[in-house]
């Protein structure tokens, strides 16, 4: 293969091979790596390691960036950037267990419940970022956006395709359930999506309202019951009871009745024969 006679020729071939292999980053760091070899700073094995590691890191970063765009995660939040000390009601280990992503394998629904500003969206996005880093496909949207897109697809006769598109992601994050009233027929459309994903893909849902209020949120108690039936079957419920991080510097301006948050209590899971009770993350998986 190599004649081993002319180092310049060999170097030229290495460059051409890196171009042929589309290893742009390795090509970029080739010269400085060679200089470090010449100066005796690193050996040949280290040099190979540097070239490959640089290339791999670049590719992984690029993949994560693309996946974030596909997921529509615009404001990147991380678990490292979450101050657990500010939210003592939240069990840090439970969130870290969720970051292990077994809930995606088990196709569960994770509910993050709590008053505004308590970090629900932050945690949902952070878990989404972990999933993307682990190579899983993720899609993030508010409930209002999802329903609007389903309603548009229905008008255009492409509802099945839209539901298929939203069902293809390993993790679907539905943010802000309960902030805006659901448009008439919206609950029904969302149910069709939830039903299509049921036991096929994982979801994270965030809400400032308790499950008992879903009838009101969706403007239809029958649809709300059917939704909760699916969404509480294989579910993890994380309740955050704390004050708003957004208002942390203005606590004295917030009225007392807003500061001391009412508890959002999950109702008993809907009765459905042969269904296991709610599990907490970390409990053994159902058979
Ligand atoms: P929610 O969705 O519950 O209304 P967010 O997750 O949007 O609240 O949080 C509001 C803002 O405060 C965001 O910018 C978020 O990053 C930040 N935030 C909330 N809780 C924490 C926390 N415990 N540590 C660090 N930042 C936080
Ligand atoms: Mg939010």
UniProtKB/TrEMBL annotation:
Renumbered residue ranges of the record's region Disordered: 264-287
AAA+ ATPase domain ranges (all copies): 106-241
BP GO annotations: DNA replication
SUPFAM superfamilies given in the database record: P-loop containing nucleoside triphosphate hydrolases
Keyword check for Ribosomal protein: no
UniProt GO MF annotations: ATP binding
Compositional bias (Basic and acidic residues): 278-287
Alphabetized NCBIfam families for the sequence: IS21_help_AAA
Protein name from the UniProt record: AAA family ATPase
């Amino acid at each position: 293969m190599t004649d081993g006679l002319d180092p310049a020729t060999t170097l030229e071939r290495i460059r051409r091979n890196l171009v042929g292999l589309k290893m742009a980053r390795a090509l970029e760091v080739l010269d400085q790596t060679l200089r470090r070899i010449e100066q005796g700073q690193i050996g040949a094995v280290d040099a190979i390691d540097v070239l490959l590691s640089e290339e791999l890191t670049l590719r992984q970063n690029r993949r994560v960036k693309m996946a974030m765009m596909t997921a529509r995660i615009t404001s990147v939040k991380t678990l490292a950037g979450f101050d657990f000390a500010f939210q003592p009601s939240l069990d840090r280990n439970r969130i870290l267990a969720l970051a292990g992503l077994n809930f995606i394998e088990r196709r569960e629904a994770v509910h993050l419940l709590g008053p505004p500003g308590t970090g629900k969206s932050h945690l949902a996005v952070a878990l989404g970022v972990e999933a993307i880093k682990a190579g899983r496909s993720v899609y993030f949207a508010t409930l209002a956006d999802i329903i609007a897109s389903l309603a548009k697809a229905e008008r255009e006769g492409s509802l099945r395709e839209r539901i298929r598109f939203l069902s293809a992601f390993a993790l679907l994050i539905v943010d802000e359930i309960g902030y805006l009233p659901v448009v008439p027929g919206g609950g029904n459309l969302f149910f069709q999506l939830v039903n299509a994903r049921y036991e096929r893909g994982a979801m994270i849902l965030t809400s400032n309202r308790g499950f008992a209020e879903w009838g009101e949120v969706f403007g239809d108690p029958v649809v709300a019951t059917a939704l909760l039936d699916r969404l509480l079957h294989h579910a993890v419920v994380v309740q955050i009871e704390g004050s708003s991080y957004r208002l942390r510097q203005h606590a004295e301006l917030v009225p007392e009745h807003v500061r001391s948050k009412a508890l959002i209590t999950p109702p008993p899971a809907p009765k459905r024969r042969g269904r296991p009770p709610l599990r907490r993350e970390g409990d053994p998986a159902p058979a």
